[in-house]
């Protein structure tokens, strides 16, 4: 097929748009990016150039607005508190850009564009230690110490941007990312079936890029501008652009000397992004009235067709000059001659008819100027976010012109943070009331904007938020034993009105169907009895896992029952066992199942019984190709049977109306909109289908209804896995105090970690070019330190020393600031000695096991070598060291060999890893990502 051309005749009546997002100004520790303003100007020029551009100036939406001062642009939608200029600052440098502002622009484009949609982002990007979950950063974005949700006021490419754009109505979607770690977006590239979608990233995964020159822009965007505006002889398609960009960037280097190679993925044929500069100008395309079209396959019910958030005086289509019909042109006289009387009369009639037709075209229903809708903010539990978002997108509140009258923004926050934020909600409005010590909740940071609606996973969250007395704690210091300080600093200024449930799902213990367990234990027994029966039938072959109990209410309820079932065993013992199997623990049930499904955890996927919502288990039980099966599900994950603990309360998804003291503006309209949304969710068949399609149970009189045949729960894959009738679960009483105690016990269960690196700095490392440079020994160690925090004790020993001497300190063992430790590693030098591997291993194990530390404190020993001296350890010494590795307290050993083959079964590195429950990594693995992930299981750093 020929490439898609937005300027082609067949696409003349369609809406095209470019959303250009540039974040120049950052608060906190992030550097400003003054080159971004130039980037936005370059992209505007490239896309709207007179001869080569594929869009018109009216097709641009720029966030922040007023960045481009020399021509017309459409202003990006501004959310309260975002986009405002600061005194004395001109252009984008003084304008704040926030995630809600950008999300509104993307959602409008998703709903309105029917032709070509281009999304461009320039700013900071950040990823987790394992390289996953690229987050786009905005003015007030921050990194926290929370390993599960480290990024605040960002947009996740995987969880926010990609899911929105995969539902776009556009014929073609093209995304261009000019930020650090842009290539990491490729791992979460998931277009809808049949969707035309292309993604161009500034560099490959894991690569950071320079900030650029304020005068000329970043190197990547400057090259884009050159290629899009100077091509000769043929149009610039996406595939041609990728090849040209790689040629342009070939001579340049990214941060740390990495090759600078733009990367891409494409789903579909090809698309024209610029016309040839020397091509003949195309004749104007007459506007045509498009025939009525049925909604496309990716258009959920209720998607907007009106140009929401556009300025009324602007046209939402590109303007093309109308062309008179041929017979009318023949009535015009030749140059220099006057028309006769008949010609004048006929021509006047033609122009009247043409004007009437043009008026009809311009006032088509697609071009009604829609007023800004009333915006409702919905806060929900992380386990519920995908389904609630789907329902919000389908909400059909519109006027007679088809314009959306109510817009709904859905976001999630950790369940513990949401509860504590509501208990101290005055700090939402007055964060400065927090004492200088910071020992109180920070709702704006930890949760986000003030919501109008709260949909927690269970009524227990509402009970805790409205209970009398001190709070149960969020993730901040207030939740770690300073509740009185928080109570003094903040008070409740909200009313939380519980209107009713919108869906149900019980918490279950999902047991692989390959495991033996008495059928009588499937219902009516407490969690402890089910686990005891499971462990008795498979001695030593069962791991009990659940997501982070701070993140979701379901995981907290399961943890409460788990601790109660453990008897006299301390919580630290249970959490230590889980941490050895998987740390950090995933935040949501879906993330937990995805980790198990990736097949990288040896036999864990077949040995893990998981405490998750029934709807999550049912989705992952679906066969390949079945609607509703998560994209990350694989055949590596065993089919699981649901067991229903009688002491874990049902997740009843209460809909809570949130009203704020002093918020009288639009109060009546807002209340009506909130109640209408609740009624629609709870009673409308289409709304309920959003939940039942994802495995939830619908709402009936007095409780959940049995699943229908078209439900995920009623599919053949789940016939023997779930029960049609939900057994009675939960105590049915107020468990506020118990859950508060459980959170406290969980937070105290695993303290800071201890990590010691043994680094081979012998001359063979330097001779083989394994010592310095990207992906080499020092770089691997320094990068993995991103998972270590101020509370951790860690150090780096250099093993190449004269015979009989002990390893030397590059970083002395103890607490450090990360930057200082990384500089010390960068300054370490190779020396002309052999690495004393055996002696260093023995002393390192002794150091990690010494002191008055808690027995359950996580410990990790990392050994980085080229394999030469490592394999030179004699057999007797190897056997003794392997026996020492099995000692107590447990020290996990991760061996990293920079030569292939060192991790073969029976080799020294493999034996040490097996004996200690660690890992052996060699070049067959992605060492940088895997080592960072292993350190993250022990460290308590920012996960930056």
Write out key terms for the chains shown.
944 residues; alpha/beta; 7-stranded mixed beta sheet; 29 strands; 31% helix
The averaged pLDDT comes out at 80
Rg, Cα atoms, Å: 30 Å
How would you classify the helix and strand content by structural class?
A: alpha/beta
User: What is the percentage of strand-forming residues?
Assistant: 15-25%
Helical content (DSSP H or I, runs of 4+): 25-40%
Based on CA inertia axes, which overall geometry fits? Answer: globular
Largest sheet: 7 strands, mixed
CA-CA gap between termini: 44 Å
Report strand order across the widest sheet: 3-2-1-4-8-9-11
Task: Give me the number of helical elements.
Answer: 29
The total strand number stands at 29
Low-confidence stretches: 66-93, 285-338, 357-366, 471-488
Give a verbal description of the structure:
With 944 residues, the chain is an alpha/beta fold. Helix 4 (219-230) packs across helix 5 and helix 26 (837-849) packs parallel to helix 27 (875-885). The strands form seven sheets. A seven-stranded mixed sheet has the order 3-2-1-4-8-9-11, with helices on both faces. Mean pLDDT is 80; it is low at 66-93, 285-338, 357-366 and 471-488. The chain has 29 helices and 29 strands. The radius of gyration is 30 Å and the shape is globular.
Helix and strand layout, with pairings?
Elements: E1 17-22, H1 35-48, E2 60-63, E3 74-75, H2 99-112, E4 116-122, E5 125-126, E6 135-143, E7 151-156, H3 157-165, E8 172-178, E9 197-201, H4 219-230, E10 236-237, H5 238-249, E11 263-267, E12 272-274, H6 326-331, H7 341-362, E13 374-380, H8 385-394, E14 406-412, H9 415-423, H10 426-429, H11 443-446, E15 453-455, H12 459-466, H13 483-489, E16 494-501, E17 507-512, H14 527-537, E18 543-545, H15 553-565, H16 571-581, H17 589-597, H18 604-607, E19 608-613, H19 614-621, E20 640-643, E21 654-660, H20 667-683, H21 685-692, E22 699-700, E23 703-704, H22 736-749, E24 754-759, H23 763-767, H24 777-784, E25 793-798, E26 808-814, H25 818-826, H26 837-849, E27 859-865, H27 875-885, E28 892-897, H28 908-916, E29 919-921, H29 927-936
Parallel strand pairs: 1-2, 1-4, 2-3, 4-8, 8-9, 13-14, 13-15, 18-19, 24-25, 24-27, 27-28, 28-29
Antiparallel strand pairs: 5-6, 6-7, 9-11, 10-12, 15-21, 16-21, 17-19, 17-20, 22-23, 25-26
Helix pairs in contact: 1-4, 2-3, 4-5, 8-21, 9-12, 15-22, 16-22, 20-21, 24-25, 24-29, 26-27, 27-28
């Amino acid at each position: 097929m020929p490439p898609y051309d937005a300027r082609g005749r067949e696409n003349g009546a369609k809406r095209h748009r470019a959303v250009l997002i540039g974040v120049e100004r950052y608060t906190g520790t992030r550097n400003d990016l003054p080159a971004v303003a130039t980037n936005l100007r370059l992209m505007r020029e490239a896309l709207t150039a007179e001869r080569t551009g594929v869009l018109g100036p009216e097709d641009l939406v720029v966030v922040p607005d007023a960045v481009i001062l020399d021509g017309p642009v459409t202003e990006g939608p501004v959310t309260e508190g975002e986009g405002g200029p600061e005194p004395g600052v001109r252009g984008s440098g003084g304008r704040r850009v926030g995630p809600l502002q950008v999300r509104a622009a993307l959602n409008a484009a998703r709903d309105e564009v029917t032709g070509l949609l281009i999304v461009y982002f320039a700013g900071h990007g950040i990823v987790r230690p394992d390289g996953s979950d690229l987050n786009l950063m905005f003015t007030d974005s921050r990194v926290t110490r929370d390993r599960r949700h480290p990024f605040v006021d960002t947009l996740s490419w995987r969880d926010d941007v990609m899911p929105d754009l995969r539902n776009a109505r556009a014929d073609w979607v093209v995304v261009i990312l000019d930020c650090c770690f842009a290539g990491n977006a490729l791992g979460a590239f998931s277009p809808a079936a049949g969707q035309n979608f292309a993604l161009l990233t500034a560099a490959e995964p894991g690569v950071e890029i320079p900030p650029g020159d304020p005068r000329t822009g970043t190197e990547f965007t400057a090259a884009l501008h050159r290629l899009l505006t100077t091509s000769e002889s043929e149009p610039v398609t996406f595939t041609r652009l990728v090849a040209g960009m790689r040629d342009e960037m070939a001579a340049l280097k990214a941060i740390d000397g990495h090759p600078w190679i733009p990367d891409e993925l494409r789903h579909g044929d090809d698309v024209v992004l610029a016309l040839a500069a020397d091509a003949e100008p195309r004749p104007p395309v007459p506007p045509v009235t498009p025939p009525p079209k049925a909604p496309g396959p990716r258009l959920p019910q209720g998607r907007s067709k009106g140009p929401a958030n556009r300025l009324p005086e602007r046209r939402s289509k590109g303007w093309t000059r109308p062309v008179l019909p041929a017979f009318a042109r023949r009535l015009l006289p030749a140059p220099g001659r006057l028309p006769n009387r008949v010609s004048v009369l006929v021509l006047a009639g033609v122009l009247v008819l043409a004007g009437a037709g043009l008026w009809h075209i311009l006032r088509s229903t697609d071009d009604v100027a829609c007023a800004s809708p009333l915006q409702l903010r919905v806060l929900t539990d992380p386990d519920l976010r995908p389904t609630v978002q789907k329902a919000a997108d389908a909400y059909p509140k519109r006027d007679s012109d088809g314009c959306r009258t109510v817009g709904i923004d859905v976001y999630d926050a950790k369940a513990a943070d949401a509860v504590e934020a509501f208990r101290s909600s005055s700090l939402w409005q007055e964060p400065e009331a927090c004492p200088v010590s910071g020992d109180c909740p920070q709702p704006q940071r930890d949760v986000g904007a003030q919501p109008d609606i709260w949909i927690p996973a269970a009524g227990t969250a509402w009970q805790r938020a409205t209970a009398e007395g001190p709070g149960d704690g969020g993730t901040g210091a207030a939740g770690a034993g300073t509740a009185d300080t928080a109570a003094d600093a903040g008070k409740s200024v909200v009313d939380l009105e519980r209107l009713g449930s919108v869906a149900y799902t019980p918490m279950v213990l999902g047991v692989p169907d390959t495991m033996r367990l008495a059928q009588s234990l499937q219902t009516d027994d407490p969690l402890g009895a089910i686990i005891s029966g499971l462990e008795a039938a498979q001695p030593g072959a069962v791991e009990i896992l659940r997501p982070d109990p701070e993140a979701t209410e379901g995981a907290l309820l399961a943890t409460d029952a788990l601790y109660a079932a453990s008897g006299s065993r301390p919580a630290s013992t249970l959490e230590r066992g889980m941490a050895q199997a998987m740390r950090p623990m995933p935040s949501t049930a879906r993330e937990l199942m995805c980790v198990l499904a990736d097949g990288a955890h040896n036999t864990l996927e077949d040995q893990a019984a998981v405490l998750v919502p029934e709807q999550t288990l049912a989705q992952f039980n679906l066969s390949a190709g079945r609607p509703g099966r998560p994209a990350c599900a694989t055949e590596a994950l065993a089919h699981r049977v649901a067991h229903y603990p009688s002491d874990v309360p049902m997740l009843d998804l209460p809909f809570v109306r949130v009203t704020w003291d002093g918020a009288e503006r639009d109060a009546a309209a807002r209340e009506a909109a909130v109640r209408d949304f609740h009624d629609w969710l709870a009673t409308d068949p289409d709304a309920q289908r959003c939940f039942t399609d994802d495995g939830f149970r619908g709402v009936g009189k007095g409780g959940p209804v049995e699943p229908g045949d078209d439900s995920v729960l009623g599919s053949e894959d789940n016939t023997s896995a779930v029960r049609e009738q939900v057994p009675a679960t939960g105590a049915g009483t107020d468990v506020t105090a118990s859950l508060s105690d459980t959170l406290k016990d969980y937070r105290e269960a695993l303290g800071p970690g201890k990590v010691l690196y043994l680094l081979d700095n012998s001359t063979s490392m330097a001779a083989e070019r394994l010592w310095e440079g990207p992906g080499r020994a020092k770089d691997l160690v320094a990068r993995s330190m991103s998972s270590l925090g101020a509370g951790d004790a860690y150090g780096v020993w250099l093993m190449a020393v004269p015979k009989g001497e002990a390893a030397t300190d590059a970083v002395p063992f103890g607490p450090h600031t990360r930057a200082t430790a990384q500089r010390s590693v960068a300054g370490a030098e190779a020396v002309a000695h052999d690495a004393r591997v055996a002696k260093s291993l023995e002393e390192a194990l002794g150091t990690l096991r010494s002191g008055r530390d808690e027995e359950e404190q996580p410990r990790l020993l990392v050994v980085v070598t080229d394999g030469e001296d490592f394999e030179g350890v004699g057999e007797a010494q190897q056997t003794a060291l392997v026996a020492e590795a099995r000692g107590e307290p447990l020290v996990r050993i991760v061996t990293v060999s920079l030569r292939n083959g060192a991790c073969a079964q029976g080799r020294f590195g493999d034996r040490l890893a097996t004996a200690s429950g660690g890992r052996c990594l060699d070049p067959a693995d992605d060492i940088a990502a895997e080592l960072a992930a292993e350190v993250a299981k022990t460290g308590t750093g920012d996960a930056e």
